[in-house]
Design goal:
five-stranded mixed beta sheet; single chain; alpha+beta; about 220 residues; about 35% strand; 3 helices
Length: about 220
């Protein structure tokens, strides 16, 4: 069973350095999240799992044998990532097409005995765009001063804002095309209805005329 969970994670990730959530998943469930992502944008996801323990009445870290399968599809429903990970994992992908990307997670099918009917809690952290950069590591690698690092951060933020603006223009263009197509179909349907009414009216008039003539009423 697959459950689609629409989420505006991208907007939250764009405003804040990261967006973390958790959800519960069953043995046969697949949970999916919809991400609106501009093109050429890096996305990093990190997750960790916890299993419900009846003795302590709390969630504890999962056993190493439990794994999660991550599948990511682009707006054209093309699979760009499909991989098996462990109980804790990290996945990365770069969008090449702007639009809604589907991120799905479900448990591996070979270790169901580890579930034993218990609830599984998944903590998911998704970072988008410049928030995927590890700036302390970049500063140490490139030997940047604090000012240079801040300039680097600002440049990355400007680049991400430009991508977001381009994506909004792309969405507006798609919406305009859809609206124009819908309006055109409505216009042609109205014309077709009018022609049908005219033809029906003419046929009724001819039929009535023939009826009256047959009855010698005219």
């Amino acid at each position: 069973m697959m459950i689609c969970v629409p989420a505006v994670i991208f907007i939250l990730a764009w405003i804040y350095p990261g967006h973390t959530l958790y959800f519960h998943i069953g043995e046969t469930e697949k949970k999916c999240f919809i991400e609106e992502i501009p093109d050429e944008t890096m996305v990093i996801g990190k997750y960790r799992t916890q299993l419900w323990d009846k003795q302590t009445n709390s969630f504890l870290p999962s056993t190493p044998g439990l794994g999660m399968h991550v599948e990511i599809k682009d707006p054209d429903a093309k699979i760009i990532l499909s991989r098996q990970y462990g109980s804790d994992g990290r996945f990365t992908f770069t969008s090449h097409t702007p639009g809604e990307h589907q991120i799905c997670l479900h448990t591996n099918s070979t270790k169901m005995a580890l579930f034993a009917g218990r609830k599984l809690r998944v903590h998911l952290d998704i970072q988008v765009g410049e928030h995927t950069n590890n700036y302390p590591e970049i500063a140490a690698k490139d030997k940047l001063t604090e000012l240079q690092l801040r300039v680097r951060q600002l440049l990355d933020q400007i680049e991400q804002i430009q991508k977001e603006q381009n994506y909004q223009r792309y969405r507006e263009e798609r919406f305009r095309m859809t609206s124009e197509s819908t309006n055109q179909r409505v216009l042609w349907w109205s014309i077709a209805q009018t022609l049908i009414l005219i033809v029906t009216g003419i046929w009724q008039m001819k039929h009535l005329k023939s009826f009256f003539e047959a009855k010698k009423l005219v």
